[in-house]
Amino acid sequence: MFLCFCFSSFGCQRKKEYHTGKEVSYTSNEKEDSAKILELAKKYFQPIPQKAPQSEKDSKEKIALGKELYFDKRLSVNNTISCNSCHQLNNGKAGVDNEPTSPGAFGKRGDRNSPTVFNAAFHIAQFWDGRAKDLVEQAKGPILNPIEMAMPSEAEVIKKLKAIKDYQKKFQKAFPKEKDPLTYQNIAEAIAAFERTLITRDRLDDFLEGDLKALNQEELKGLQSFVKTGCTTCHSGPLLGGNMFQKMGLVHPYENRKDLGRFKVTKNPGEKYFFKVPSLRNVALTAPYFHDGSVKTLEQAVVKMAWLQLGKKLTSQEIKNIVAFLKALTGKRFLKK
What we know:
Cytochrome Bc1 Complex, Chain D, domain 2, mainly alpha
């Protein structure tokens, strides 16, 4: 925390530190510095929109149905896991299970880390390799994946849900214009509608919208280091990521060479080891990190990414400041009141 002596000649003022509520002192020079950093930040980042793309057509009935389906373990072959099992929304979780990889219906683990579902509606594509173009397409995958929810076919999913009278009524309300609304497509449509409501806003949004008090001095220094280091080459835009694919190990090779990433989807040799750049929103809550969940702490992730992607070795102070900035990206809904 940065303090100043409040002599009138220094233009010292009082403010409340946004995230602690404590009153601290700051000088007019600090205010000017914050304004300059804000202009820098606006070159690379934008506030998260209040509403997700395509959400204008989502009715409250469709969203409510999607929420129920998201938490329903009956969508798995043995009624043991739901969407929420791997992308947890309860108990203060940030849309993840905090596991390196997630266990499926029969206990076998997948080969990639489960990404957060928060703000997923704003991503360029879904899954680490971008194989699903949107949330609807993504929602169809895990239910039929033999390692994940392991239902044998779309027909079996529909048969199972149609045996539940309550669902037939709720699908009719969510899709009132359809004669037979309980379809696999509509299951995915409903889940996607719910997921489009999972938006977080944090102190960076407040800062970008003009609140110069939103970030403290350490976080502001971290923002500057983040930009100066070159992290914004990939982590930019509203989500600080989620808007492009990049090679894992751009400058120095990543040690895990088994997963070929996007190459599995495109068959383009030039895209070997390419993955979707993850969003950094709520990153302090989504450990472990990387597509294989191999890195346990945020500090380790910062050090490793600077070296692998940029060929840079950071000082201990740079690491500390960048981590402080990244922690400021934690959504307000997760902060203790």
